[in-house]
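Changelog note: in this version the structure field was regenerated for every chain. One regenerated record is shown below for reference.
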Amino acid sequence: MSRRLKDKVAVITGASSGIGEATAQIFIDEGAYVVLGDIQRDLGNEVAARLGDRAKFLFCDVTREEQVEELISEATSVTGTLDVMMNNAGIVGARAPIDQILLDEFQKTLEILVTGSFLGIKHAAAKMKEQESGSIINMASTAGLSGGFGPHAYATAKHAIVGLTRNAAAELCRYGVRVNCIAPSGVATPLAAQAHLGDFTAMDKLRETLAGNSPLKGRAGTAEDVANAALFLASDESGYTNGHCLTVDAGFTSGSKATDPQHMASVPFMREAGKEGLED
């Protein structure tokens, strides 16, 4: 490895599985110390033990401000700095037609996805402003960039994450702190397997399904794809990148499709009133 995060200190929420776990692995492989936060206590402890002495797990409900503060405090105790904050914790949340969504489920979805990220940004910013450096990475989604890519509450929350990222970036840049977000489409994680197939363990079937629908022929998106995007935003290589939403979606949001679009077919030059060709 190139040690792109040599001795940097990172906090990752939602780090017990999926994208968070993959990012923690890559960060440590690249030389970072990582504090993992999650409500999945047993899984979190297992991941931290596997990652070795540069990883530590703390139970963290991101909707509880004191627990987010504790996570940041633990990270800053390692070397005195906080270099990376990745607000990754999330759920799918409320799923229903717009006229049937329960208010408490809608509000809980926003509380975890938006308030949880806000608290991570808030407490990371306090430390990073003081040291005049740092990278904050938020987890958005293609559902936060266009309509129709996710349930209503989830899409609302992810649109909010993009806006919050840009607003925080506009404020914190003068302190040397960068704020960016990542917008994946469906990638192969236990959360996605549960959402798409009703079984969080059905990873092989999920990869097959995602590969079949991907604009990149036969290529499913993976947690490692998103983790590599996070590595770029965490490292000094992205030192002039701020307020950006980095898509990891095989081109879905830019119009890429798994099948050839009609306008790409080879047909005669089209003119006015049904005429074809350059000349009459």
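Spot check on this record: The beta strands are 9-13, 33-38, 55-59, 84-87, 134-139, 177-184, 245-248. The chain has one domain: 9-187+222-249.
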